[in-house]
Design goal:
The protein is of the alpha+beta class and 443 residues long. The protein has 15 helices and 20 strands. The termini are far apart. It comes from Paractinoplanes ferrugineus.
Length: 443
């Protein structure tokens, strides 16, 4: 088993990883920027190293500084969490080239899935359903228009190197495609260093469903269960639940089989997620992308399976077998992302936390990155905490979520708790028959 672990991340996910590592008797090393020196994850690790100023490029994305911290502290392994360098194949290769254990998938799998066009083509060849779209990048706006004419409007214009809901726009006709193509291409070049653009069928009413997979140390790939992620703003998730209220037992079998096939196709190891779009009108689903890392929403899968996914990641990276038997799930879990943002327009609202009182009670879990007195800075993602509830069934989980939202007290930064109170009283959401347009309809 790994004996010492450097956590190359910050906030709630760093605390989450450190908690499991400490339970397993693994020595933990936190890295942090100058701006994060007072956050809880820094003091909760056995050792901490400042790797640079607030700018992520000079700290949490600074490969040389992170590897130097690992060397100076005698770390044996690196866990990247999510975001930052977690899906950077060059970083994964550098970690292993320095004789360290990478707690994640093979670099080749990250590369294969990092380009959305390449990933689509690989999945199509393997027999995994993909939405109608381009097999090669649309190098010019004229090529995009030609592709859209074949695919049929509306279309999604996507950055091939993007992820996490970034670098995407919908075009309803040739005029809007011309406009959005230039915007997405420029954004992709600026954010990802790759201006490649994919044109894909856009489904006006669709659900976002994903499957948690684990590539085991013995080479097998297993699929645990699905998560519903359709409550989104700007294509980024706000709420997740498991199991999905839209997935029947027969559909679940198809989802899980496709996810396993996707993992096997790229020789996947460790934790990953196969994301799909589900057409509720037909029951057809299409591969969207594979996230080659631990997801923000992993706790809801943990709760319905009764396992610790971070522990399984560490065991896989250590060459050990899993500590659980794959079987039926129990209960229902919901996760709400508590962000420092305006609950109406969802614009960032950082600030010093003057009040922070987390809800308690049976079936309530809070994975937070902050405590009272900390400051949410504008340098990083607005996520402050994840409010997770587990109930005997969906109605029970919804009741616990309402109570937990009412009991969560935050003052200082703006927060989206009022939005969740509204959502948890919304008939469409309560009925379970919702799609990715629900937030827009509420606004």
């Amino acid at each position: 088993m790994i004996e010492s672990l450097l956590v190359a991340n910050r906030g709630e996910i760093a605390r989450r990883i450190i908690r499991t590592a400490n339970r397993l008797g693994i020595r933990t090393i936190a890295i942090h920027s100058e701006a994060d020196a007072d956050l809880p994850f820094v003091s909760e690790a056995d050792e901490a190293v400042c790797v640079g100023p607030a700018n992520p490029a000079q700290s949490y994305r600074n490969t040389e500084a992170i590897l130097a911290a690992a060397k100076s502290t005698g770390a044996q392994a690196i866990h990247p969490g999510y975001g930052f360098l977690s899906e950077n194949a060059d970083f994964a290769r550098a970690v292993e080239a320095n004789g360290l254990i990478w707690v994640g998938p093979p670099a080749d799998a990250i590369t294969a899935m990092g380009d959305k066009i390449n990933a689509r083509n690989l999945m199509a060849e393997a027999g995994v359903p993909v939405a109608p779209g381009t097999h090669d990048p649309a190098a010019t706006v004229e090529a995009a228009i030609e592709a859209a004419a074949t695919i049929g409007y509306p279309v999604m214009v996507k950055a091939a190197a993007g992820g996490g809901g970034m670098g995407m726009a919908v075009a309803a006709d040739e005029e809007s495609l011309t406009r959005e193509y230039d915007k997405v291409r420029a954004f992709a070049e600026r954010m990802f260093g790759d201006g490649s653009v994919l044109i894909e069928r856009y489904f006006p009413r669709v659900r976002h469903v994903e499957v948690q997979i684990l590539g085991l140390a013995d080479g097998r790939v297993i699929a645990l269960s699905e998560r519903e992620c359709s409550v989104q703003r700007r294509n980024q998730k706000l709420v997740e639940e498991a199991p999905s209220p839209a997935v029947t037992p027969e559909l679940r079998k198809r989802f899980l089989a496709a996810a396993v096939k996707a993992g096997e196709t790229v020789g996947y190891r460790n934790a990953g997620t196969v994301e799909c779009l589900l057409d509720p009108a037909t029951g057809d689903f299409f591969f969207l992308e594979m996230n080659t890392r631990l997801q923000v929403e992993h706790p809801i899968t943990e709760l319905i399976h009764g396992i610790d996914l971070v522990e399984q990641q560490l065991r896989i990276a250590s060459g050990e077998p899993p500590t659980f038997e794959l079987g039926e799930t129990t209960g229902h879990a919901i996760e709400l992302r508590i962000n420092a943002e305006d609950p109406k327009r969802f614009l960032p609202g950082p600030g010093k936390i003057s009040t922070w009182v987390e809800p308690t009670g049976d079936g309530t879990r809070v994975d937070s990155g902050y405590v009272e007195g900390n400051t949410v800075t504008p340098f990083y993602d607005s996520l402050m905490a994840k409010l997770i509830v587990f109930g005997a069934d969906r109605d029970d989980a919804l009741a616990k979520a309402r109570a937990a939202v009412a009991g969560f007290q935050i003052a200082g930064p703006k927060n989206n708790l009022p939005f969740f109170a509204e959502l948890l009283a919304n008939d469409e959401f309560l009925g379970g028959d919702y799609d990715t347009g629900i937030v827009g309809r509420m606004r």
